[in-house]
Structures are given as C-alpha cells and as structure tokens.
Amino acid sequence: MEPLQILECGPPLVREELDAVQSAEIARVFKALGDPVRLRILSIVAARQGGEACVCDITDAFDLTQPTISHHLKVLKDVGLLTSERRGIWVHYRLVPGTLSRLSALLDVPATV
Amino acid sequence: MEPLQILECGPPLVREELDAVQSAEIARVFKALGDPVRLRILSIVAARQGGEACVCDITDAFDLTQPTISHHLKVLKDVGLLTSERRGIWVHYRLVPGTLSRLSALLDVPATV
DNA sequence: ATGGCGTATCGACAGTCATCTATGCAGGGA
DNA sequence: TCCCTGCATAGATGACTGTCGATACGCCAT
Q1: Residues of A in contact with B43 (CB under 8 A)
Q2: pLDDT higher than 60, residue A109
Q3: What is the pLDDT of residues A1-29, one digit of tens each?
Q4: Is the N or C terminus of chain A more exposed, i.e. has fewer CB atoms within 10 Å?
Q5: Buried b (16+ CB within 10 A) or exposed e, B14-45
Q6: Is the residue at A110 inside a domain?
Q7: How many distinct structural domains can be found in chain B?
Q8: Which of B24, B32, B46 lies closest to A13 in CB terms?
Q9: Cβ separation of A16 and B101 shorter than 8 Å?
C-alpha cells in the first residue's frame, strides 16, 4: 500500500510501452481519481486557502455520511495524493506536492503524435 | 455515452472547486484509465509507429482473451480516448488527439501550492 | 473521571466491473 | 457459394466498491 515510486521518473505514457508492473501502480492512482466524490474532495482541498481543508469542511460539501467521506479520504491518502495532519480535534488534509504534477506529466503528449 | 465536452475548457482541478456535474464527467475518464490493462493498451497504441495498432497486435500483448481486450477497447473508446477505423479485415485503434492533453492540463498544478 | 465532539474503523449490502465461454457478424479468398 | 479469419456482442459469474449504520478512538472541557 506504499504510494508508488513508479511515478518518480517515468517517461510519458505515450513514449514507450508500459510493462505490467508500471501500469498496475499507475492504475492505482487513476482508479482513485475515477470517482466523482474523490475528484471533488481533491478540488476542495486544493482550492482552499492555505491548500488544506479539515474533514468537517469536506463532509459539509456532500450529501454523504461522515464514514463515507472518511473512506474516500483514506483511498486518496493510500495512493499518495493526500496527507493528513491532526491539530487538536480536527484532522487537516492537503495535497502531496508533486503527485498530481507527475501524473500530469505522464499524460502529456509530445507535440507530434 | 458521448465523450465529454467538459474537458474542453476546464481550469486546473486545483484552481477552483468542481461541481457535481464536472466531477462526474471527468471521473468517467479517470475510471477508464484506472485499469492496468487499459493503461497498457493506451501505451501500446500511442507508442506504435504511426500512432495506431490493430486489435490483433494488442491482444497478443496480453494473456487475456480477445473478447476481454475488445471490452477494454470499447471502454476507452466510449470516454473519448481512442477511435477505431476498419480497414479490410482489421480494425485499427488510435489516440483521439487532445484528450490526454486536456486531462494532463487538468491535473497540472500551478507553481505555488 | 465524565461527557461531548470530530474522525476512523467495522460489518453488511447492493451495485458495478473484469473476465470468461459461446455466439454473431463482416470481409476476403477459394 | 462456402468457409475462414478478425472482431464485436451477449450472458454468466466471482470479485471489488461505494454507501450505510453502528461503534470505537482521540482530544478537550468541565
């Protein structure tokens, strides 16, 4: 469940064929992004002043129960997209710097295809 | 099942909060990317000379049955990542230009986060 | 200590998905 | 015309997932 090192130095998806191991690790992250609620959570966290949001804020943005939001946060955390920090009673989530950028670079298509 | 216009002009994910409709459409594409086999298929198609591959070539690259590959190709086609063209007996798949780039831009994080 | 509040975990359940086998369909050659 | 080949579709099935209610845990105030 460790959050992928494969993204560290990978060439774009379209440059050379992925092997089974690479594709499995990368797919984990995209699978985490493949849910509307999780996308909105990421968006909420990222767009927030200071780049972080507490669970209560996130929960308020949805018509979902708190355990469900907690589940989605765990998924995002397990693939290395979010980190959490407890401050007093509240837990704050923020983007892991670099993860989204590396995904972005992975999808980037060289000029001529 | 029409392949998303939402990606046409969207700001980065991290710039402003997504609403439910936007996140649902974008999540469809990421969900399609969230499978190792489909990632490898994309990679094979994109890395191929000429930017296209026929189904037979793709099928040969996996230990999966031909109907399973056909299923994955349909998923990628339905979200607007691939197009297909029949030439004689063979069907050739290629990337839809721009779709990956727009996804990449969506994930791109402004300098300061 | 005791209680209250914010989060996380557990167990259950319905829906979705990846895969298979069997079958159908279209194009080309004999 | 008939068959063979490449690909798509249909139906079935086991596995996974998103959601919930119930409950446990951690922190703070009283």
Answers
A1: 13-14, 16-18, 23
A2: yes
A3: 444 444 554 567 767 788 888 999 999 99
A4: N
A5: beebbeeebbbbbbbbbbbbbbbbbbbbbbbb
A6: no
A7: 1
A8: B46
A9: no
